[in-house]
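Recall from the previous lesson that a structure prediction takes nothing but the amino acid sequence as input. Here we apply that procedure to Pentapeptide repeat-containing protein from Hamadaea flava. The sequence below is the only information supplied.
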Amino acid sequence: MTKASQPAPPNLPAEWSTGTPVLDDEEEWWQLDLAGETFEGEAAGLEVEQSRLTRVRLGGVRLERATFVDCALHHCDLANLNADRCGLRRVELVECRGTGMVYIGGALRDVTLRDCRLDLTTWRATTFTKSAFVGCDLRRADFVGADLRGVLFERCDLTAAQFSNAKLEGARFVDCDLSGLGGVASLAGATVRADDLVVLTELLAGALGITVER
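The prediction returns the following tokens.
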């Protein structure tokens, strides 16, 4: 069984470079300390490494095959960001707003998402490895077909989130709101706190067509 494990933190530099970031195809952002910048448009093959983004606005941007390695994103606006086949490795996102973000066919390894607003996000066919959602708003998030084996969900609002055809072996749900969860049968092999079992039992009964008398 795959077990949930602690994501590795980003390896950030002791000093920052003075490069000027440009959102364009095949651009490289290296050891940048960005604060408050706003980016628009689209880019394919963008590489961001050992960089810190604070209150950076990427809302509505379209990224294809972008990679973020050893990065910290704090208080960033990622609402309606469209990320296609993008990769994150040793990345932390803290108090970011990502309502409506679409992240399809990507890969996350050693990624922590903490206290982020991620309602109405789409993570279809994305692979998560050693990753954790902590204190996140994931209402109506779409994880259809995602590989979430070993992922930690802690203190997250997963109301009406969809997990159909997802892989969840070894995933852990701790103090989460599972009301209205879709694809509940995909939770086979996951670990759920006893306090959350009442809601989960009702969902399983509904999925199996069982009437619960009160």
